[in-house]
């Protein structure tokens, strides 16, 4: 190990890139694996949980780590690409140790684990050396005092905490992109996953659910109270909500649709009425739609919405009233690249692409793929026979339906998973 800091706080490692000796990024740090023997002996750091391409989690032994600094982790480049499987004798610092209730007997302080520090011992092994403990907030103080103490000065780290919260784990999850947060939640032990799901707000949970596999989506949503499940579905994009509801038992689906706001439920029901894997079933019913009197400045203001995906923000559709799908007569689409070259005060209608061919809702997934590929599109409108805009298919919608089942878990078959050798 060369040029490594003497002490590294684990929460600051999460999300750091992992590089091989040539400087090529091979993954990201997602957690730290330790072996906790007792409250007397310092836990030995066995390695890192790294996420490599395809959202697969692998084990990176500390013996393969050559350097850690403020911005990256370097390895020998010799990584075992088998999926990480946690053993019963191992503890995940981020996933299981944060938020654990502990005491500092010398000062009679009680609190929760806020962070954990590791450092190299004289024998070159990495060990857990310090624990950051945060007291509960008092009065008007939002956060309690934090104490950083030696490992041996803390009680409760080796005991299972049935009431373990998720405050500090949530902080780490909120710093991640939804896809990365979904991977983290997928890998959590069941009790920790339940605590995190319960603590997430509806909007963030919806973002994460959209990135999880069908099995995880159904498991999490089924565990929620019906009222909250309906609220979360309302926060999801209509096409993702429709896909998820279709996986639920019919009686559960009916209850949740009845609890949703009528307008939100109507969009979902309309998408569910189309045959699976057709343009109608995979389309998004809420692209950017403007009237013929909209200006270029209006269009650019709409596509600046941070909640829009890059593909949805690539075009605006111009329609007659009403502007909610199904709209009035579809007039055409304007590409943002073109609008950026136009005066802000000019009408979007003057920059319409009148050669753009639309999709029909009954078109198969293969036909949709061929259409997007032929015209080099990331977004295409879907029209009915009367020329009304029903929605739009994005390239990410298409990929979600074309990739093999289980791609979100980074594997094709869970039965072939094996334990990863440590060392």
TrEMBL record:
Pfam families: CBS (PF00571), MgtE_N (PF03448), PRC (PF05239), SH3_actinomycetes (PF26205). GO terms for molecular function: magnesium ion transmembrane transporter activity. PANTHER family: MAGNESIUM TRANSPORTER MGTE. It comes from Nocardioides acrostichi. Transmembrane segments: none annotated. Keywords: CBS domain. GO terms for cellular component: membrane. The keyword Repressor does not apply. This is CBS domain-containing protein. It comes from the Bacteria. Residues 352-410 form the CBS domain. InterPro entries: CBS_dom, CBS_dom_sf, Mg_transptr_MgtE_intracell_dom, MgtE_N_sf, MgtE_transporter, PRC-brl_dom, PRC_barrel-like_sf, SH3_actinomycetes.
């Amino acid at each position: 190990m060369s040029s490594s800091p003497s002490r590294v706080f684990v929460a600051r490692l999460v999300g750091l890139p992992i590089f091989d000796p040539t400087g090529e990024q091979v993954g990201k740090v997602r957690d730290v694996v330790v072996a906790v023997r007792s409250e007397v002996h310092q836990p030995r750091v066995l390695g890192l949980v790294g996420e490599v391409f395809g959202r697969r989690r692998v084990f990176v032994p500390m013996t393969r780590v050559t350097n850690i600094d403020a911005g990256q982790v370097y390895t020998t480049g010799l990584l075992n690409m088998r999926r990480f499987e946690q053993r019963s004798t191992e503890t995940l610092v981020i996933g299981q140790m944060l938020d654990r209730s502990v005491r500092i007997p010398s000062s009679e302080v009680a609190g929760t684990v806020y962070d954990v520090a590791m450092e190299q011992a004289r024998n070159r092994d990495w060990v857990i050396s310090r624990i950051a403990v945060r007291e509960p907030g008092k009065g008007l103080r939002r956060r309690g005092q934090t104490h950083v103490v030696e490992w041996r000065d803390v009680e409760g780290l080796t005991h299972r905490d049935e009431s373990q919260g998720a405050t500090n784990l949530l902080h780490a999850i909120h710093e991640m992109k939804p896809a990365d947060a979904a991977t983290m939640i997928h890998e959590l032990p069941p009790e920790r996953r339940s605590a995190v799901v319960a603590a997430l707000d509806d909007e963030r949970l919806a973002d994460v659910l959209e990135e999880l596999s069908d099995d995880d989506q159904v498991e999490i949503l089924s565990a929620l109270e019906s009222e909250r499940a309906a609220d979360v579905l309302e926060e999801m994009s209509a096409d993702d909500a429709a896909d998820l509801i279709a996986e639920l038992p019919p009686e559960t689906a009916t209850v949740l649709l009845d609890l949703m706001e009528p307008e939100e439920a109507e969009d979902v029901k309309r998408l569910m009425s189309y045959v699976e894997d057709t343009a109608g079933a995979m389309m998004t019913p809420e692209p950017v739609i403007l009237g013929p009197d909209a200006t270029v400045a209006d269009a650019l203001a709409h596509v600046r919405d941070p909640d829009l995906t890059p593909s949805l923000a690539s075009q605006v559709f111009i329609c007659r009233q009403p502007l909610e799908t199904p709209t009035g007569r579809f007039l055409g689409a304007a590409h943002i690249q073109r609008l950026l070259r136009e005066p802000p005060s000019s009408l979007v209608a003057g920059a319409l692409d009148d050669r753009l061919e639309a999709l029909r809702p009954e078109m198969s997934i293969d036909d949709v793929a061929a259409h997007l590929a032929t015209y080099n599109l990331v977004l295409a409108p879907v029209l009915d026979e009367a020329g009304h805009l029903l929605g739009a298919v994005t390239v990410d919608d298409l990929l979600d339906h074309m990739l093999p089942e289980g791609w979100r878990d980074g594997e094709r078959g869970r039965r072939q998973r094996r334990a990863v050798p440590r060392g």
